[in-house]
Design brief:
about 110 residues
């Protein structure tokens, strides 16, 4: 089954999920540009990327499940890896920036735990 043979309801749902995922990712990217400090900038893309990825993975699972006529869950592995690595990367970047700011005695540094 090709994309042209996909039922109308499935094609509309796949498009809606993919566009919603792209919108979340775009909003996160805009937040990266508009926010001023590092700690603010790190938060928006992480949330946008995670939410956008989840919707795009859902669209992919739906598309391939309908196209192949069986439940296809292989895309969940991609979603799992991205869901785990994005917040961990954000946490490590935030801790490194906080350590740097505290070492340089920056006034905007977060307080010690």
């Amino acid at each position: 089954m090709s994309a042209a043979d996909l039922p109308g309801w499935a094609a509309c749902l796949v498009v809606a999920l993919a566009l919603a995922g792209a919108a979340f990712s775009l909003i996160g990217s805009i937040g990266l540009l508009r926010l001023r400090g590092f700690y603010e900038r790190a938060h928006a893309p992480a949330l946008g990327a995670t939410a956008g990825m989840a919707l795009i993975v859902a669209a992919s699972i739906l598309y391939f499940s309908v196209a192949e006529g069986r439940l296809v869950l292989r895309d969940l592995v991609i979603g799992l890896f991205l869901t785990v690595t994005t917040p961990i990367t954000l946490l490590l970047l935030g801790r490194a920036a906080a350590f740097r700011d505290r070492s340089e005695r920056n006034a905007d540094a977060p307080p010690d735990p």
